[in-house]
Design a protein that fits this description.
Immunoglobulin-like, 5-stranded mixed β-sheet, 41% strand
């Protein structure tokens, strides 16, 4: 008879907290003032933009950053290519990144859309002329058919647009905002499970304090909600789908005048979850990131203990926890969303702060939820162990036959979790065995 003593020992992992991966400013050619978030590539590196710096002039860059903090400038902008890239890069199915700039030369002074390859080949695809939009500041998202979707904050004839663009630069305007149905969309769109696009406008609506909208890919617009101040004002970030079918978002103002966090259903029922007070954050300008633990994570540009911004966690019932207070040396004014890496950690940028005061890229390790065995089954000398995990994190199952001086031994290979539970087999269980799990 096989007698097993199965014990889960305390989870061993890396230290929790914020780590500055890179501080901009050591060399101007490497860029400075990163206002957008970062996008993880297929190679595990993170790609982003800076609004200033570069080798050509002071018009911004596209960069690649490894998880070890090694930065490579892929492209530098000039008048011909576009000025001041803004918005988080979109990774398309063709393996290239797509983004937008706020300006350019005389033929594209209203902004551009560009493509950049992982080896730095920069191509300008669209030059906005005013009639098809002005100032695309939101970034792009890939659609189901391989096309990309985005917004412009203004146009000559309207209060902004929603557009579709192909990867070879063929642009179609889907929506023109008129003020009542919204004005000046500044946040990235979100592709819903229903195939429609969801987003926000900074102005417009009844009180000119912004709206939430849904638009089909053929341009049918529905205004879901119009902000009035007390329930939020001036949203400029994308909406994040929750597991409950609702969408979660931020407003830069309203509430108690420091911004809000809200939940909205697809039929327009809005619930204000948090009103920021300043001490716990002020002016959230980026969207929320859904963590592997089912909570949302985000940033505020201001507020906190030093009024330099925060990183926070939000539960679906509105419980807010401040995780980081920026203080300058570790960053200042995070203006974009966080990105959940494949390693289970969050990555983000601050527009200012760091070693030279002109921005950082940081990584945040958050405490993992309790790790417990879900089931342990022994059959003919083979033990199957299943334990709770966080998607994206890596785990090493270890064992001992004796709790004395014998060191813990690895059992099998490191496992990268893809769900909330992970399993492993022990084919060599003895009469007595102890187990623990280690986070790599």
């Amino acid at each position: 008879m096989l007698l097993l003593i199965l014990t889960l020992f305390p989870l061993i992992g890396k230290a929790q907290g914020l780590e500055v991966l890179y501080s901009f400013g050591a060399m101007n050619s490497y860029g400075h003032l990163p206002y957008a978030g970062v996008t993880e590539g297929a190679d595990g590196c993170f790609y982003g933009t800076t609004t200033g710096g570069g080798s050509s002039a002071n018009y911004g860059t596209v960069f690649k950053l490894t998880t070890y903090g090694v930065l490579t400038t892929l492209a530098s902008f000039d008048h011909a290519a576009g000025l001041t890239p803004v918005g988080t890069l979109a990774l398309a199915s063709d393996g290239n990144f797509y983004g937008n700039t706020l300006g350019g030369d005389s033929s594209s002074a209203n902004g551009t859309i560009f493509r950049v390859s992982t080896n730095g080949l920069l191509t300008t695809l669209v030059r906005f002329d005013g009639t098809n939009g002005i100032y695309p500041c939101s970034g792009l998202i890939p659609g189901n058919g391989g096309d990309l979707y985005g917004t412009t904050a203004f146009s000559i004839r309207s209060g902004g647009t929603v557009f579709r663009v192909t990867t070879n630069g063929n642009l179609t305007t889907l929506v023109t905002f008129n003020g009542d149905n919204g004005k000046s969309p500044r946040g990235r769109l979100t592709l819903g499970d229903d195939g429609a696009l969801y987003g926000t406008t900074f102005y417009g609506g009844i009180s000119n304090m912004g709206t939430v909208f849904r638009v089909t890919t053929n341009g049918a617009l529905t205004t879901l909600f119009k902000f009035a101040g007390t329930n939020g004002a001036c949203p400029q970030a994308y909406l994040t789908p929750g597991s409950d079918g609702s969408y979660y978002g931020t407003t830069t103002g309203g509430g108690s005048n420091h911004g809000t966090l809200f939940r909205i259903t697809t039929n327009g029922l809005l619930t204000t979850l948090v009103m920021f007070s300043g001490t716990n954050g002020d002016s959230p300008q980026g969207g929320l990131c859904l963590g592997a633990d089912g909570n949302f994570y985000g940033t505020t540009a201001f507020g906190g203990t030093s009024n330099m911004g925060t990183v926070f966690k939000l539960t679906t019932n509105g419980a807010l926890t401040t995780l980081v207070n920026f203080a300058g040396s570790n960053g200042e004014q995070p203006r974009a969303e966080l990105t959940l890496g494949k390693d289970g950690r969050f990555y983000g940028t601050t527009a200012l702060g760091g070693s030279f005061g002109v921005g950082t890229v940081f990584r945040l390790e958050v405490p993992a939820p309790p790790c417990t065995f879900q089931s342990i089954i022994a059959n003919d000398g083979v033990v199957s162990l299943t334990w709770s995990t966080v998607a994206g994190r890596t785990y090493q199952l270890q064992y001992k036959d004796d709790l004395g001086g014998v060191k813990w031994l690895d059992l099998g290979e490191v496992v990268r979790a893809t769900n909330f539970v992970t399993s492993a087999l022990d084919f060599s269980a003895t009469n007595q065995r102890f187990y623990r799990i280690r986070v790599q």
